[in-house]
Amino acid sequence: MQPKPPQKDKQRINDDIRAKEVRLIGSDGSQKGVVAIAEALQMAKDEELDLVEISPEAEPPVCKIVDFGKFVYQREKKAKEAKKKQKIIEIKEMKFSPKIDKHDYDYRIQHILDFLSKGDKVKVTIRFRGREMSHTEFGFELMDKILADVMEFSTVEKTPKLEGRSLTAFLTPNKKK
Fold first, then answer.
1. What is the pTM assigned to this prediction?
2. pLDDT band, residue 5 (cuts 50/70/90)
3. Is residue 152 part of a domain?
4. Among residues 82, 104, 121, which one ends one of the domains?
């Protein structure tokens, strides 16, 4: 049977710390300097707190005197806050046809602007059907009009490109100042 690999996330506390000397940070955040592990453990015991290894890679390892339960709670709270602040950028797609009515066009442009204002990227697709493939210039004219109408709110990430029976372009929202 093979030994288990060490867990990277596992925090060493109190007697689990293997170093002979540690750089100690007190419970008030002050630097205590490099002390022997036995002395550091005694200081933590005197304050009725735990000795937690903060940075095991440092030479000597950095340890802090804290309440371990509170320390774990604070670390998880920070991780949740960081995760909350992350914005997942989605790619929304808006499809057009070369022969589109004004009302339909305006409605789709409004949706593109809504997507961009929410911070999402937009894929604009113009699909050609049947004989429309022989007149792709109408699609390129429509794409130029679309890009001109949303230019102040976005930048073109990928220029219009004809792929098979569809003409596509990607828009990204402008950075808010």
1. 0.52
2. very low
3. yes
4. 82
Range of the domain at 111: 91-173
Looking at 31, 58, 82, the residue that finishes a domain is 82
The secondary structure of the chain as a DSSP string is -PPPPPPSSPPPBGGG---SEEEEE-TTS-EEEEEEHHHHHHHHHHTT-EEEEEETTSSSPEEEEE-HHHHHHHHHHHHHHHHHH--PPPEEEEEE-SS--HHHHHHHHHHHHHHHHTT-EEEEEEE--GGGGGGHHHHHHHHHHHHHHTTTTEEEEEEEEEETTEEEEEEEEPPP-
For the domain that residue 126 is a member of, what is the CATH number? 3.30.110.10
